[in-house]
Amino acid sequence: MTVTAKNLVWGAQRKTIVNNVSLDVAEGETLGLIGPNGSGKSSLLRLLSGLRAPLSGRVEILGQDIARVSRKTLARQLAFVQQNATTDTNVSVRDVVRLGRTPHRSALAGWTAADEAAVSAALERVEMAGRRAQAWQTLSGGERQRVHIARALAQSPRVMFLDEPTNHLDIHHQIEILRMVRRLDVTSVVALHDLNLAATFCDRIVVLQAGAVVACGTPAGVLTPPLLRDVFQVEAEVTFEPQTARPHIRFRAA
Ligand SMILES: Nc1ncnc2c1ncn2[C@@H]1O[C@H](COP(=O)(O)OP(=O)(O)OP(=O)(O)O)[C@@H](O)[C@H]1O
């Protein structure tokens, strides 16, 4: 397994926010993380990426307990695209993406051709190559999101954690970003609100409710009308796409 979480518990202000979560993510897999607002998706991603330490339990990435791995080593292995990430305002798009190369550079080495190639490839992938010189502060919300994804790609990680990466994106870029994540030779865990996007692009889905895993499996196995009713309190019909056999959810207005 590339990512393994065992019995993760985390909380704040006497409230348990991540409640005994265990999960495994296989190499190259795209695992979707879904659940209502406040169910603990972002908190779990922070634990999985080592940004926050659990109260108990542990996370292994590429077979190593992340509590015992240096920050620099971890930064070479994993990238985290956070929700509403901010960046210093007085920089260009290219500068932001260049930051992704930091874990791969030593104090003495200069900027290499490999660094430049990684930055250019990342900008191409999110369709922002033409904007490399533009000032960060002048970008739209969706463009900023794509540049943050490019920074993560420039990091050349083995594992990516993405917290609602389609936030702010138009439908073309939502699909492009998730298609890219799925095709990358990278293991990824991605928190999503759009259940049909999760159904279309994830290999498996984990459902969180009040900090606990209440379902885990293929999109077809997980996204059933009873689960949608229990967890999301919506009435829905689920049909299956003829070509892919993936579920498609139609929500009932009343
Ligand atoms: N540092 C903290 N102190 C107190 N409460 C917190 C803290 N961090 C998160 N919470 C609470 O924990 C719960 C889970 O938050 P989290 O952001 O992980 O949920 P989420 O599933 O990502 O939500 P959303 O879908 O709305 O983004 C929320 O009720 C939140 O208010």
TrEMBL record:
GO molecular function, one term: ATP hydrolysis activity
Keyword Metal-binding: no
Pfam families (alphabetical): ABC_tran
InterPro entries per UniProt: AAA+_ATPase (IPR003593), ABC_transporter-like_ATP-bd (IPR003439), P-loop_NTPase (IPR027417)
Keywords linked to the UniProt accession: ATP-binding, Nucleotide-binding, Transport
Source superkingdom: Bacteria
ABC transporter domain sequence ranges: 3-235
Assigned protein family: Belongs to the ABC transporter superfamily.
Protein name (database record): Iron complex transport system ATP-binding protein
Taxonomic lineage: Bacteria, Pseudomonadati, Pseudomonadota, Alphaproteobacteria, Rhodobacterales
